[in-house]
Amino acid sequence: MIERILLLLFPAFLLLSSCSEATNQDRSLTEGEEPVTLNIDTTGLAKATFAGGCFWCTEAYFERLQGVKAVISGYSGGTKPNPTYREVSYGRTDYAEAVQVYYDPEQISYETLVEVFFATHDPTTLNSQGPDFGEQYRSIAFYRSPEEQQVIEQYIQQLNEAGTYQNDIVTYVEPFKKFWIAEDYHQDYYKINPTDPYVVSVARPKVKKFEKKYQNKLKAEYKD
To answer: Active site annotated at which positions (predicted)?
Structure first.
């Protein structure tokens, strides 16, 4: 991971960079807990957690879907208490950049979220996504119940049988344990920082491609 200062000094390294560093407060979420900063009523909402590369992109995809009420960027799949972005992005922990999706199951199904997850990153590349390399960018689908585990595994089987990808799917299917909220400046990063070099050159083309493909599932403000 290359820090923001390197982006400024060495533009040639742009495509090797992702989100930048900051300190982190104690922001852990276990099952049943909700973030204080989540300004929505979570009554009746379900949660899903995915890791599919840089969370700036992943967050932007899910935020656009009808039925998704909030998306939070953070870290999951690791063991160290209170991980910081510097630690995760430098590969000093076993965490992956992840998002926690709050959705209305009466408006969008878990199956659809799983479909979007696999459609918006490459599940066949181990520990990398596009210009981002390292274990922190590995593909993980977290499940909260045996039913969700079955949905994920059956969809992977479906993709394999259809020959959707030339290479084997290497996505980890793991039980959800804990989610650490990323630093404040990572939240809604794509929306708040439209001129960021990484957003312009890497994230935006991916998001625009997603919007074109999933027009019928987007919120009204994101439709053409």
So the answer is: 54
